[in-house]
Amino acid sequence: MLGTTFHVCTDVPNLSSAELYNEMMRIDNEAKSSLSIFNPESLLSRINRGETDSLDRHLVYNLSLARTLGEKYDTHYDVTIKPLTEAWGFAAKGVTKEPNIDSLLQFIGYDKWALDGNRVVRHDPRVQFDLNSIAKGYTVDLVAEMLEAHGAQNYIVEVGGEIRCRGVNAKGNVWRVGIDSPEDGNMSPGANLAAAVELHGKALATSGNYRRFYIDPSGRKVVHTINPQSGRGATSRLLSATVVTDNCATADALATLFMAVGEERAIELAERMRDSVKVYFIIDKEGDKYDIFNTLQ
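Request: output the structure for the sequence above.
Response:
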């Protein structure tokens, strides 16, 4: 799904494995047809090209949630970031020189667009949206809602590391989910865990810069999490941010937000959100060691 792996364990009573797989592929196709910047025929791609301003229900939900989170938390979470992710090589082919950041920042920001019912109003036609920081979590929510509609009482859904669960596993135990160690180039989920957490009817998402990055010709590490205020990759002592909350779209977006603001501001925000959002931050420490900030307990 969405170009990555997925796993589902469920007790859904009235779907065979083949029927469940077909339902998953239907959701996958629906999500990519709406939200993908990599599918040139998706509705989002057409909006970015200025061919339409009409939104489907998926885009209305994601843009509304993104706007709410961005405006609430200092605009460090901003889905108008596509010109920057593209310029840095994370939404298209690699780059050969450093982009002109100042020119691109003119098209970034929540003051550059608005929602009008089922329409998006762009105040500058060069404003473009990138929903990669929320679409995967949202797709997990779509799958979870489909399972519940078919009567599932117990399930876990995982798409590319983003997770939502309900009930218990086949042994009657609470679902347990591993958090990967944030080592550069760690491309094998589950091979090296930093921690394991129990999930009770919640969603979990992790963001980090240890998988999606490249080394530029000068030897500098360029990471995929872009700070929408500076226009550059967000690097700090915060190596990975795991978020647990009620739905996976919000968890996905908040994990990106925390990575964008860096460890000090992320901890400050997490303390403010403690009643509804739980986090597990892995923070760099000298000597190949980690500090942990954990509100899961």
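The radius of gyration is 19 Å.
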